[in-house]
Amino acid sequence: MLRTDIKLAGAGRTDTGVHAKQMYAHFDVPSTIDTTDLVHRLNSFLPEDIAIYNVYNVGDTAHARFDALERTYEYWVTQQKNPFLQEGSYYIGHPLNVDAMNLAAAELLQHTDFECFSKSNTDVKTYLCRLKHAAWSVDDEKLVFTITADRFLRNMVRAIVGTLLDVGLGKTHVNNVNSIIKSKDRGEAGTSVPAKGLYLTRVIYPKTTLNLDG
Q: How far apart, in whole angstroms, are the C-alpha atoms of residue 16 and residue 1?
């Protein structure tokens, strides 16, 4: 549509099967473009499972990935079989101790090195992440785990949820969470839960960088 080659840079990458309620991406063009009708035109080309909500003209140095201040994810767990949530949540038929899961989630906030939750053989230079929030809540017929941090490692949220579910199922104790994190060993943490229950829900940028209403 813009009659030029476009290279798109997203706010981050997710595993196959993960959903995004909000995602930003940027691309460079030689000059400022008229965004008035661009959203409608883009959506007419895109498949049904992708929707563009807005297009912004931003500064030359703005970067969708590196300028992000924080990201928020949700993970959905259902305890009752629901055909309407089958493709967007993880069904667990066994009872879960949500109070224990929240105690374990609170322990995460005491740490910054999350190597034990990172996928092996990654090319990251550091495993340090600053967590701002991590908690479970009950939302109608599903359990929702919400976590916010400045950055996330590959597979990190799915591994954290798997570990917290082990606590909820009584497979491990809340007191073990600290030792798991300190071990820096992926084998000590829980199994990664299915990608279909994970949602990227929010990405925050500095207003001065992207001119967005944070």
A: 28
Split into its structural domains, the chain has a count of 1
Give a yes or no: residue 76 inside a domain. yes
Q: Which pLDDT tens digit goes with each residue over 152-205?
A: 999 999 999 999 999 999 999 999 999 999 999 999 999 999 999 999 999 999
Spatial separation of the C-alpha atoms in residues 203 and 123, rounded to whole Å: 23
Q: Per-residue pLDDT tens for 55-67?
A: 988 888 899 999 9
pTM for the model: 0.91
Q: Which two tokens stand for residue 156?
A: 């990190």
Taking the C-alpha atoms of residue 178 and residue 35, their distance in angstroms, rounded to an integer, is 49
Contact 108, 99 (CB under 8 A): no
* Catalytic annotation present for 15: yes
Q: Which of 5, 15, 140, 213 is catalytic?
A: 15
Query: Which stretch of DSSP H or E encloses residue 91?
Result: strand 90-91
Give the pairing type, strands 25-26 and 198-204.
Answer: unpaired
* 87 is a domain residue: yes
CATH code for the domain in which residue 146 is found: 3.30.70.660
The closest of 185, 167, 190 to 104, measured between CA atoms, is 167
Residue 84 included in any domain: yes
Q: Which domain holds residue 143?
A: 70-201
Whether residue 49 lies inside any domain: the answer is no
13 touches 193 (CB < 8 A): no
